[in-house]
Amino acid sequence: MDTYISLCVPIIVMLLCSTVFSTDISCKNEAGEPVDWFIIYKLPRYKIGEVGSGVDYMYLDSSVESWQMSKFTVNTSQGAIGKTLNQIYIGEAYKSNSSVYAFYNDAPPILEYIKGYGHTKGLLHFDHSQGFWLSHSIPHFPSFPEKGYRYPSSGKVNGQTALCVTYQYAQFLRIVEQMVYLFPRFYNCSVPGGFLADLPQLAQLCEGSKPPLASDKRVEQLFSIQGEKFASFVKSERFVDDIYTGWVAQALDVDLLVESWQREGHELPSNCSLPKHAMNIKRIRLPGSILFQSHYDHSKWCVSRAYEDQVTCLGDLNRERAQMWRGGGLVCSFNPLIYKAFRQVVDWYIGC
Ligand SMILES: *[C@@H]1O[C@H](CO)[C@@H](O)[C@H](O)[C@H]1NC(C)=O
Ligand SMILES: *[C@@H]1O[C@H](CO)[C@@H](O)[C@H](O)[C@H]1NC(C)=O
Ligand SMILES: *[C@@H]1O[C@H](CO)[C@@H](O)[C@H](O)[C@H]1NC(C)=O
Ligand SMILES: *[C@@H]1O[C@H](CO)[C@@H](O)[C@H](O)[C@H]1NC(C)=O
Question: Does 350 contact ligand 4 (Cβ within 6 A)?
Fold first, then answer.
């Protein structure tokens, strides 16, 4: 009996500890604690009437009322993105065969730009239990796993956004089906043997080959680990249209205000030809009178114009002519807190 107890107590302590100090793969907040989702808005260097550092950012998750200025900068791993990615870098998860990781970016670090892939940026990391999907707008990011967390200097000039959502394993099977349409450029990837039966398409994509498509676009509902609903809209390059006007506004039946990076002479004007409209945002005002022109914002997001519709999407594509021929997508949320945060920063848009 005595032996039984003395063996048993350490086991119970171990079990308790592993529940409290969870090693579950997850999005992490600014304190390094697991969160269901977070969003960051990296501020541009050039604001109206002010030149900033280019590395400051605002943070949002379900525990805060609105955008919080971070006390960290995006080029250190102390903030939410760094703490989330350090599960791969410092945790060396990239050496493990019990989890999957996949970094993708049409403009990867160092390597040459190759045409033909989707205009999409992000990473997946999960095990058989759960993990996260981080999608963002930052070229040349994230750095190779063995390099540790680094933020590219090219990502400092313009505004950028990132959305991280924690999902159970089963949701990654759906996310991978979306990836087939996106056809991302995966530059660092590992799908260990234990995942191949479930995720043959991800393994194929990682090798650079393209699984066949049933259609030219696809929408899928996703539920985060806490049950928050998201809708993933993805199009392949075969759906030749502006994703905002030609599809998402009509599919969601809402007028959209779109913030995207538009180069002069290449931009699509605000469009009110179809039943639901897509209009270009020109100026953003974040809390604390942080005012900047869309010209210096490389992020890609949209909100419903009408407050009652409460739609916010973050994604991959600009309202730009050439991007009609690119794969890419949007992750849409119906969360009132996310909607308020984005809708209230729209300072000026071009109606039609
Ligand atoms: C982060 O970027 C700022 C502004 O460019 C720079 O002053 C600082 O040294 C950088 N920090 C790191 C750790 O790279
Ligand atoms: C995973 O790695 C461990 C330790 O290196 C090894 O013993 C095991 O056989 C590997 N499993 C698979 C499925 O490759
Ligand atoms: C990531 O990709 C780069 C470029 O191909 C390569 O040099 C590096 O070794 C890869 N890292 C890992 C961990 O596979
Ligand atoms: C508005 O967008 C639709 C769908 O992309 C397109 O067919 C139409 O030509 C556009 N209208 C104008 C005036 O650009």
Answer: no
- 234 vs 80, 216, 320, 323, 350, CA distance in Å? 26, 9, 17, 13, 26
Q: How many CA atoms lie within 13 A of 288 on its CB side?
A: 11
Q: Measuring from each residue's beta carbon to the nearest atom of ligand 3, which residues come in under 6 Å?
A: 94, 111, 144-146, 187-188
Query: Does 129 contact ligand 1 (Cβ within 6 A)?
Result: no
pTM: 0.93
Q: Say if CB 161 and CB 43 are below 8 A apart.
A: no
pLDDT in tens, 321-344: 999 999 999 999 999 999 999 999
Q: How far apart are CA 65 and CA 25, in angstroms?
A: 25
Cβ of 153 closer than 6 Å to ligand 1, yes or no, is: no
Interatomic CA distance for residues 29 and 105, integer angstroms: 23
Q: Give first-to-last CA distance, the chain, whole Å.
A: 81
C-alpha closest to that of 60 among 34, 80, 78: 80
Listed as own residue / partner, the contacts of 113-117 with beta carbons closer than 8 Å and 24 or more positions apart are 114/185, 116/183, 117/183, 117/184, 117/185, 117/327
As a whole number, mean pLDDT of residues 207-219 equals 95
Which ligand minimizes its atom distance to the CA of 110?
3
Is-catalytic flag, 298? yes
The type of residue at 130 is Q
Indicate if ligand 4 lies below 6 Å from the C-beta of 352.
Answer: no
- Ligand 2 centroid to Cα of residue 99, in Å, is 11
Cα–Cα distance for residue pair 157/206, rounded to 1 Å: 30
